[in-house]
């Protein structure tokens, strides 16, 4: 019985790896759909106005998925509730949210995490998988995927946003201590395009799960 959560920057390949893991481990995948997210395009158009609303939207969705995933006991989630705060604080530092919004958000998140901690069955995921990609790789993937509002041509200021976001992930991952964690080198292993890389990545994750299982017994 395992609950896995994926983490990583925009375009890191979380959704693809989620799908692969769900298939490999015969578990259910939880995705955060982008195309029916009404707030996301608004945010990219006017981050100052919509950063807070977007975070509340995501927080609500992720809370729902992680609650369901933990109570089902056997799942993979494509992005964790634990990293939204990283994105929001970055947005706040860029002046897209004010102090009160940050306070309200942090408080709400804390409350929700406590709620998760008081669940009667599983409280935390078994493993967090961080797909780490370099900044160049991140830009390459965003371009390749081609979601319009994420493109630098659409808004050149996204360059700095993406760069800062990517660099903050390293510190975030180092500090993350809610559950066991593993980092996957997304530059070295292109698990979407390369079958051999996919096999190697799945093996790394399965080996880590075995190790955790051993520690728990
Ligand atoms: N907490 C958040 N704050 C701001 N934007 C967010 C947040 N979470 C997700 N996003 C935005 O939502 C979109 C989808 O993000 P996400 O990284 O979850 O999926 P993705 O880009 O499809 O990643 P992957 O390729 O790794 O599956 C991106 O445009 C990202 O900027």
TrEMBL record:
Substrate binds at residues 32, 44, 55, 79, 84, 150. Residues 5-207 form the Deoxynucleoside kinase domain. It is an enzyme of class 2 (transferase). Its EC number is 2.7.1.113. ATP binds at residues 8-16, 141-145. Gene3D superfamilies: P-loop containing nucleotide triphosphate hydrolases (3.40.50.300). Signal peptide: none annotated. GO terms for molecular function: ATP binding; deoxyguanosine kinase activity. The active site is at residue 78. Keywords: ATP-binding, Kinase, Nucleotide-binding, Transferase. It comes from the Bacteria. One of its GO terms (cellular component) is cytoplasm. Belongs to the DCK/DGK family. This is Deoxyguanosine kinase. The gene is dukA.
């Amino acid at each position: 019985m395992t609950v896995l959560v994926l983490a990583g920057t925009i375009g890191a390949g979380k959704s693809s790896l989620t799908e692969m893991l769900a298939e490999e481990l015969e578990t259910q995948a939880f995705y955060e759909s982008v195309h029916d997210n009404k707030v996301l395009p608004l945010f990219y158009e006017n981050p100052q106005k919509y950063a807070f609303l977007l975070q509340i939207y995501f927080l609500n969705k992720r809370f729902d998925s992680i609650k369901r995933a933990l109570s089902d006991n056997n799942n993979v989630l494509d992005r964790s509730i634990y990293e939204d705060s990283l994105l929001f604080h970055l947005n706040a530092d860029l002046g897209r949210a004010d102090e009160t919004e940050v306070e309200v958000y942090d408080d709400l998140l804390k409350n929700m995490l406590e709620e998760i901690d008081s669940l009667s069955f599983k409280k935390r995921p078994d493993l967090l998988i961080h797909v780490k990609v370099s900044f160049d790789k991140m830009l390459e993937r965003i371009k390749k995927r081609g979601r319009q509002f994420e493109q630098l041509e659409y808004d050149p200021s996204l360059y700095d946003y993406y760069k800062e976001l990517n660099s903050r992930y390293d510190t975030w991952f180092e500090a993350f201590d809610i559950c066991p964690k593993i980092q996957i080198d997304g530059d070295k292993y292109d698990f979407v395009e390369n079958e051999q890389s996919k096999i190697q990545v799945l093996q790394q994750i399965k080996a880590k799960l075995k190790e955790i299982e051993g520690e728990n017994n």
